[in-house]
Amino acid sequence: MTYALNVNGRMHSVDVDGDIPLLWVLRDVIGLTGTKFGCGIGICGACTVHFDGQAVRSCVTSIEHSASSEITTIEEVGETATGARIQQAWLAEEVVQCGYCSPARSSRRRSRSRSDQALPIPRLRARIRPVN
Ligand code: FES
Description:
5 strands, about 15% strand
């Protein structure tokens, strides 16, 4: 079946099975590989994207449930004021370890920070907490 997806402000027409997770459509069909596969069962968050500004796990979200939302991936997060400030703070604080989960962690942080656009970088830094 063909689905029309709004991803990062651009429309994409994809011809896939209705039960395929959004993660694989983003990575393998559209070619946006910043969203990562981790557990595949909605636990780790490596596959986080935004639906209308809310963080969702794309590995457990079917393409059928994706067609009516505005989807934002990590490729676009850095283009927003909040996302760019979060990425600056991450670089300044050397948050990245191996980097595999960084796109998802940055996306989740942005989802929580939509009202934080005026926060200075030191306050954003203070909100970045280590993960055990
Ligand atoms: S890959 Fe782990 S929550 Fe999606």
